[in-house]
Amino acid sequence: MTVSDPSRWRRLHPASFLVNLVPTAWRTVWSLWPLVVGAIWGRQQGSAFDVVVILFFSMAAVGRTLLHFLTLRYRLFDGRLEIQSGLLSRVEQAFDPSRIQNVAIQQNLFHRLSGLVELRVEMAGASGLLATDGLLSALSLEDAEALRAAIGRPGTSVASSGAPHQALDAPGLLEVVAYGASSGRAGMAGAGVAVMVEVSQRVAPGSLPLAPASGPGWVGLVLVALAAGYVLSVLASVFRWYGSRWWIEGEHLHFEGGLLTRRRVDIPQRKLQMVQVSEPIVRRAMGFATLLFDTAAGGGPPEPGGSTTEGVVPMVAREDVDDRVRVAFPGLEPNLGDTLRPAAAGALTSAMVASVLGWALPLVALVAFTGQGWFLLILPVALAVAWLDVRWQGWAVTPGFMVTRRGFLSRDTWVLPRAKLQSVRWVQGPLERALGIGSVVVWFPGGRLPLPLVAEAEGRRLFASLSPPR
Questions:
Q1: pTM of structure
Q2: Which of 117, 150, 183 represents a domain boundary (last residue)?
Q3: How far apart are CA 101 and CA 270, in angstroms?
Q4: Per the structure, how many domains does the chain have?
Q5: Which long-range contacts (CB under 8 A, 24 or more apart) does 438-442 make?
Q6: Which domain holds residue 321?
Q7: Are residues 206 and 279 in the same domain?
Q8: Nearest CA among 331, 334, 207 for reference residue 269
Q9: Which among 255, 264, 310 has a CA at the least distance from the CA of 101?
Q10: Is the domain of 250 the same as that of 346?
Q11: Is there a smaller number of Cβ atoms within 10 Å at the N or the C end of the chain?
Q12: Which residues of 111-196 form beta strands (DSSP E)?
């Protein structure tokens, strides 16, 4: 895309077909893995049919990738980014650069081997819109940089070795490993595997040769599953966050990271909707937190590494968190998190009732199905966690910002500028009405955020003060 003629239609790089074909074929084979296993090791008559099905879907993947390469065109025209694609069903898209939330340049292993990059543009309310089907997924670095600069996002490339301006956090390998080990989801995944094994043995005894035959064996399986979950979580963390860093260039925040697939995201400060501080209990004990930066392209409160998260800083020292949040929101009051107001007194009763209603029936059914009475011990644990959750909830509303904190095992704090608010609701269920409490819920571009339960008088005051002027 030359500066002299930005309106000329351009195509993807000639190597785009091969670069896109390999990951597309892999995704196709992975989605058909039961048929692949059956075709390789099966000895039944149906194996030939499996091979035909695999070949059909593989050829469809090839055809789809070829059609994408031959028909996709893009240009800058009349101040807009325009993209055309499709043969029988023609799709034309036009994007106003001022409406673009995030721009990401990404390189997976195949991009690196070919010297190409992938350009992703995300619009409000459509996370990853241009990334669908690998759109603009194989451009030369020169074309990607020119296009990114033309839509108002200049900066250092993901493939460049230039030093970033005002560099901030850059977690090392040990911190990335600690991030994976402290994610909290690994233990849940491991426990889930053990429960699934136990249930499968009840449904089809003998179907799994390694299933436990006694209490100690069951406990051993849980421990093995937990260990496997943590190992997989650590490996996933290394692949996703190795070499991660973030920095500021002008009024733009830049996030970069990844071992095999290197991803770079550029977010203008004016597009930021919310910052989330995630502190799972293990990570909190280590003295670290995770920062997540959300834009209107996300569609809700973000999750680490998830599709609703545009920018993530996996590990930040706890004493640096306030300063890092103020990088995103310079007007944030200092030490605001230390002055949060607690939830209303009736919030504990509401949480206890919700915990009992949520756990009692599933636990009784699980005990009846497996014959393992110790599952009932989960209920008092759940009640204790609910008490701790309410104990550590907090909120604050200042002239410029809203801050709300929830959770104990996995504590999260959200910081939202009041300028981003679109609407507000005062919500009371039957139990909350009886207790004289309720929740203030605010909507902003891309999501909503509830405050902890507050007394009715306080909640109605907040509702009136936060409501848009007439």
A1: 0.75
A2: 150
A3: 9
A4: 3
A5: 440/466, 442/402, 442/416, 442/466
A6: 163-330
A7: yes
A8: 331
A9: 310
A10: no
A11: C
A12: 116-123, 139-140
